[in-house]
């Protein structure tokens, strides 16, 4: 396997980590104003991800940095091409990050309520936009022979990508509600369970519609064939099992299953892309690939050594921080504000 | 305005704004870590109160620094895609390593620190804040490694129409990096030091002479003194280095039109930038040579000669940066730096000698000097980046070639307005919160927290 392929896989891994981790904290942010009625409840909900959301977001920053380092042309075409969508996403993330830190800094219900809705919007918008972005990567966007995006903002808003956006939104929200049912107690726990049960069916339906559309809108069918292989099928089976697992109150397993759905769907999309990183709808030959978009072999080698040393360390201390704060958050204990 | 001009404004505004908060984060994280170490070792409650008080202010500042940093990372691809294509092979690596090494560490251990007061052992809790401080400063090293390449390209070869990395070790041992990072680091200490001083002064005047703020005041004074002194000494080293590596930058900083030997230093120049000559100037003979070489002779090259040299090397074109902006930002940075040093020395002496019996006027001076480091920091960055023009990568790649060719002026204009508006709102909110938390009664903090806890428990 060459270094280009290794970096393609590494970036896929970063996106999987990002969607799995930030996926549930987007979900938690989206559910915050609905599940938490009074201030203490909302604080408990925020504290369930309080220690983690910032570290989860770094997965995205690292994925962005890794794209820049390993595939600069991918980074350049994608970020300049999806310009306005990214501006909107950045504004949402700015507001969201500040809101987590500032919402409790004043003992004023209006102030707090306002920030809580900013957390909602700041989670909702990226959860939606990531699905749209990923769908456009694989469906293809107009790219010319100089690797320049020649479309505009509305090119990105086609039925397929919009369904992809709704699918990611629903999947992350479901994932977040299950996460909350593992982290909360009493009334909040009941609320989270209820929401998870309600969300499961629409999330599953939209996801399957998205998959079916994918066969028409992308070249997944010709690439993967009638039998797509174990990974996409397992992604589908996992989301199907969530309904049953929620019914028998096995939230831990349900969480594992939504995690598998997210991870395996991401893998499927990256398999569909490979060896391309962005598909050109203008001319397939103008697609960006792991070869024409990549850095020099030397840079890839340096980056590989850095990644081999530091990725395990990062994984270890992030896992450890989850372990430290593994207990459920209850409104009856002292809450860190 | 065209997309290039707008993209440059956007980069300037977002970067300068981001750097309002970064030095406070770098300096204050270490300050809080030192305070908590003092608490850990002595068990003195005053140090715990200090840790909590300054820790809250640190967090309010940190949040805004982090979220504006995201824009910085994405901006290269969004507005400067041609630059990203040309430079990605070299520039992307430090950015990716910054995220992997520094951001993860910073964010994960900050989470543990905020939520871990009663959940992890005291030792681990203390280690967490130190890891946050180390992570923040590591991140500065990596981003400055990237910036240093733009000032002084090393370890590369131009192949396949782009700059390719040939020596990673050269990039992280770049001489420019190791004069730049210490300058930024001690500038950050000074910034945090003056902030601590100012708020402590306010507390000492308004709320009486509380032990926590006497201790904080002394701490801030020493911090500001060490920071100001070293930032000047290292700035001097950096200037000498600049003459060797980026002579045009120094010539612009001094508005030195012709080469001189010995070179005089300008105290005040009112120049005619178009015709490249002085209209009115006061100069100290030989001083620039002394600054450059530690002796009163030696040639310092002037703008006209350097322009001629550049034309020979790179072909016809204008290789002179905006001289007036370079000249004045350099002077503001240096002048404010010396003012900071003076205030820090006088304040430190008084703090240790007079037992805080200052004249009210001095408290006022100390309070308002909190803004001095930010003025110097801002002027310094504007100077560094403007005086490098017309290059994004010195001698290698021009700003005009760097901009995204698929992004319209309308799109950049929209994002520029959007960022400016949200940044303006954020700073109002942030300053409001800083004010609220800076004027808190330090003895009430623990009580407030206990009350929240009790009201919760009584409800349950």
From TrEMBL, chain A:
In terms of one coarse class, where is the protein primarily found? Answer: membrane
Protein's GO biological process: aerobic electron transport chain
TM region positions? 6-36, 82-103, 115-138, 158-178, 199-216, 228-246, 253-278, 298-325
Pfam families in the record, alphabetically? Answer: Cyt_bd_oxida_II
What keywords are annotated for this sequence in UniProt? Cell membrane, Electron transport, Heme, Iron, Membrane, Metal-binding, Transmembrane, Transmembrane helix, Transport
- Which cellular compartments is it found in? Cell membrane
Cellular component terms (Gene Ontology): cytochrome complex; plasma membrane
- Gene Ontology molecular function, alphabetical: electron transfer activity; metal ion binding; oxidoreductase activity, acting on diphenols and related substances as donors, oxygen as acceptor
Q: How does it sit in the membrane?
A: Multi-pass membrane protein
Please indicate if the UniProt record lists Transport as a keyword: yes
What family does the Swiss-Prot or TrEMBL record give for this protein?
Belongs to the cytochrome ubiquinol oxidase subunit 2 family.
Q: What is this protein called?
A: Cytochrome bd-I oxidase subunit II
UniProtKB/TrEMBL annotation, chain B:
**Keywords, ordered alphabetically:** Cell membrane, Electron transport, Heme, Iron, Membrane, Metal-binding, Transmembrane, Transmembrane helix, Transport
**Topology within the bilayer:** Multi-pass membrane protein
Q: What is its main location?
A: membrane
One GO term (biological process): aerobic electron transport chain
Task: Drop me one GO molecular function for this one.
Answer: electron transfer activity
Name a single GO cellular component: cytochrome complex
Q: Does the keyword Transmembrane apply?
A: yes
Q: Per the record, a Pfam family?
A: Cyt_bd_oxida_I
Its transmembrane ranges are 20-41, 53-71, 91-115, 127-145, 184-205, 217-235, 328-349, 361-383, 412-433
Q: Which family does it belong to?
A: Belongs to the cytochrome ubiquinol oxidase subunit 1 family.
Q: What is this protein called?
A: Cytochrome bd-I oxidase subunit I
